[in-house]
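Write out this protein's structure.
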Amino acid sequence: MIELLNVTMRKIRLLVLSTFYWMMLNGQTTKTDRPNILWIVSEDNTTLLGCYGDKTATTPTIDNLAKQGILFTNAFCTAPVCAPSRSTLITGMYPTTMGTENMRSTY
């Protein structure tokens, strides 16, 4: 059952990537049609930022970005440490799938 699911997921990924590349090669979008997205990822910090209500933290630039953009109030991660979570952000795959969940630990 798991092997069938893995094969199905690979086929779906291949279909999505193929469609994306086909659209890019055929010029379906122009430069003006693309959204203007800036994604900033900050690692190993908590909600100790002014935009999350911390009175001690002085983070005016981050606070301004949060006011103008999207401020996430619920966050979930695939692992409690940075490297496995980072590998998930980069690849879109769970750390257990890639073998990065133990952060090079034998435990």
